[in-house]
Task: inverse folding
């Protein structure tokens, strides 16, 4: 059995950075739980907004949440009402989760009102160069009962059309097209060195919830070497 590791895990100290950037000695469990709540809530709330990733930065007196998305207008709304409503719902979710926790004495500083939450929305101009957005698009097409092989070929053609892309691999697994036996199918175009630390590989996953079960989607996009 081979040991499969996330491509970013190999490159954290070399070329990539963490999605959560903060340091804590006393409130480490509380902050870690808070990060999980924030990501889970935003991923469900912004499922159809083309979110690539969510970054969390903590400073003294402030928590900065960065949402990288291809559809910022859907999140911001008219006059910024959507972003303000999203912030209020997120704060309520965090406070509610701590009220339901077993140890009520230990609460994060954000729930006590000591820290200010700020949501920053960044636009992704080329969504077909980002793996998570491509995986979400494939999952949406499969949920609409589109043929998986046709969907994979369409995604490959749209990703390879970008000059900066050196190679791409898309993979789906599950009861494809409603068959009785689950299997895995994949297509690849170009070069994809997954063992080279200098290789800049964007990896993303998504899940298509169909009537016959869940179909998993994985996407690798190779953007050349980074020194």
Result:
């Amino acid at each position: 059995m081979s040991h499969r590791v996330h491509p970013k895990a190999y490159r954290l100290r070399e070329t990539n950075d963490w999605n959560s950037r903060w340091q804590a000695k006393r409130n480490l469990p509380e902050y870690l739980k808070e990060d999980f709540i924030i990501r889970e809530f935003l991923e469900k709330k912004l499922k159809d907004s083309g979110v690539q990733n969510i970054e969390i930065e903590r400073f003294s007196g402030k928590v900065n949440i960065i949402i990288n998305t291809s559809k910022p207008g859907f999140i911001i709304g008219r006059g910024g009402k959507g972003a303000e409503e999203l912030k209020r719902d997120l704060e309520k979710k965090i406070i509610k989760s701590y009220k339901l926790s077993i140890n009520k004495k230990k609460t994060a500083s954000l729930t006590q009102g000591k820290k200010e939450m700020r949501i920053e929305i960044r636009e992704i101009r080329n969504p077909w160069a980002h793996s998570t957005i491509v995986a979400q698009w494939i999952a949406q097409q499969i949920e609409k009962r589109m043929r998986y092989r046709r969907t994979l070929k369409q995604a490959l053609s749209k990703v390879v059309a970008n000059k900066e892309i050196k190679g791409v691999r898309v993979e789906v697994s599950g009861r494809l097209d409603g068959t009785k036996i689950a299997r895995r199918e994949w297509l690849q175009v170009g070069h994809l060195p997954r063992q080279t630390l200098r290789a800049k590989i964007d990896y993303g996953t998504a899940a298509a919830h169909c009537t016959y079960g869940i179909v998993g989607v994985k996407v690798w996009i190779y953007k050349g070497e980074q020194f």
